[in-house]
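Its record is quoted verbatim for completeness.
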Amino acid sequence: MLSVLVPVYNGGHDLERCLAAIADGTRQPEELIVIDDASTDGSGALAKQLGARVVTLSGEPKGPANARNRGAMVASGDIIVFVDADVAAHSDTLARLEQRMLTDDSLAGVFGSYDDAPTAPNLVSQYKNLQHHWVHQHGRRHANTFWAGCGAIRRDAFLAVGGYNPAYGRPAIEDIELGLRLTEHGLRIELDRDIQCTHLKRWSLLTLLRADILGRAVPWCREIARRGHAPHDLNLNDTARWSGVLSWAMLLSLGASFWLTRLALVAFGCFTILVLLNRSFYRFLWQQGGWRLGLAGVVLHLCYYLYSSAVFACVAAPGLAWRRLRATKRAQPS
């Protein structure tokens, strides 16, 4: 039995498209529950009109982690499917999620990927949504984390680890952190690249920076520092790590070239290596949106590496260094 949970805060037209896509799917869920996180735009009433069961949360919005937990409390399905309110599932998405879970009893969860056809036309939205697609399409099949944009979890596994951490009071890394706890309990999560959905979100430069830095980089780096290690996958693979180093080497060399001009060659070399490391992604952007998206993607991706690695250096690195220092002292004979 499938229970689909859709948390929403002021979902607007995106929520309508989200629920319509679920209604058009080849596999209709036994339960479709929309958790209205104190919306002010009538999202709850819209969801009721479209046939969903609505759980209304009062007071101030408490974030999708809390909303999903509240939905799971009233859901009765043995498989819970999480779909974000700005996501349109493909017609076969729910069927594929269910089939994967039913054919492998050892799986606690499975999640898919955004497709390569985001709807928002502006360059920032095209870049960011296609970056999400690219990362999941090149991630490891056996995942250490979870993705709540479009993913399924067995209800008993979800409850066994306590659900999402409600301390995340805004959209952040609550799904990543849930996946880490699931795998720490010896449970398996799988990334199935063929299970896809369309991201409807429109990004501006400001919302992108706010989400990337405050919603992801800062809490993710805090979690890495707390745990003492980082998964070697998705946004933390070798290409990403080296690109972060190269981006800062390029910027610092370029700045120092005003005093020592030969360092401009070092900056150019770092930029060239960075582009070569990420050439497949940049080629993909060019193929999807032409030269304008290709060039914008290079600039935005370089900025992404700069601010992400800066947050890592300021937030995660000191904690990791302190943990290693303490471990070294413990290992020394007294």
Q: What stands out?
A: Residues 234-331 form one domain. The chain is about 55% helix and 15% strand. Residues 142 and 205 are 33 Å apart (CA to CA). Strands lie at 2-8, 31-37, 53-57, 79-83, 87-89, 107-114, 142-143, 150-154, 188-199.
